[in-house]
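Quick entry, no commentary yet.
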Amino acid sequence: MRVAIAGAGAVGRSIAGELLENGHEILLIDKAPTAISVERVPQAEWLLADACEITSLDEAALQRCNVVIAATGDDKVNLVVSLLAKTEYGVPRVVARVNNPKNEWLFNESWGVDVAVSTPRLMSALVEEAVSVGDLVRLLRFSHGDANLVELTLPEESALAGTQVGDVEWPEDTSLVTIIRGTRVLTPSREDSLEAGDELLFVAAQAREEQLEDLLSVRREDAAS
């Protein structure tokens, strides 16, 4: 997979390193000469150019990319890169970094963004995820379909503990995608049982989040009464 990353700062280079380890072809783009540090990510292609300029994106052959990641520290730049990537080059998947949470509402399909990643929101979500049991934590927002990646750690007293996945009446527009149990990552089947302490990851419509949280957090005594 070919991935272009606009922004070769610490964030962009870190993403590039991870993707290169997974066997992907990476192009890093930045207009600042000081950001071009080929020795830091030598396996990547590098381009000294302004990613907001059509001529630069033509040089980058953006139409050949499967994914574009707008990872600069400027939200305006990330929006422009996302819009150009989607509308001018038809890039199938556009991921954009949100630096200021106040701008998060802009990062949607109208600006060509498929997935918006808010670093401050993600950090706070990870803190919540680490300390919260029984509370739904939103980890990631997907622009298309108004869906979010959410997590809930199943509490000891949950009425669903010991219940098979296939026996649960999940809310509409909700999908259980992963169960993290200790050091294991499980792809859930209908026969798998839910256990107290499981970290459950869902893709869910925002309108269903409260319903999902209520379902998972209901206590045994409440369910029995």
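second:
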Amino acid sequence: MELNGLRVSRETQERLQHFAILFQKWAKTINLVAPSTLDALWHRHIADSSQIFQIYPRPVTWVDLGSGGGFPGVITAIFLAELQEGWVHLVESNHKKAAFLRTALRETNARGSVHASRIEDAHGEIGDCDAISARALADLDGLIAYSAPWMLGKENCRGFFHKGRDYLREIAEARGRWEFDLVEHKSAVEHESVILEVSNLRRLV
């Protein structure tokens, strides 16, 4: 099996397939993603989320903000299971979605845990991390503000944020409040979309 041109092992493929089955089952009663995107689960959500690990395939500690239906947090945790190292802390305040995330992690033997709390309170529960991810949560300025407790003053902590075609405007707005290094990774799944890699965060105002 291949995702975005990357060969995926049989074990990881089986975990991803089991996750997809669970997701479809739970999505019948819980609004995990926009209903219009359910038919494109593999391309729109699983393959898209897998790009995070493909960009940064290291056995590190992640914080996934606003994990929702598990994208990209559960997908990253599934890939980490093959490495047998690293961990994903999934932050999701909605208790029904948090219950789904716990079930998905447990049944796929993925390397992660769920924190059913507000993002603003999560740093106190989790502590430091090496990488942060978020997808369809907020604009870049908002994402950086959420991530600041982990990233400010931490040279080795970086954020990976999925963004759509309007990402240049979001970058310009964020630079009005923050200084940071930026790498733009073109999406292999969604045309005109990117994954923004943010590091060396400093506050301007």
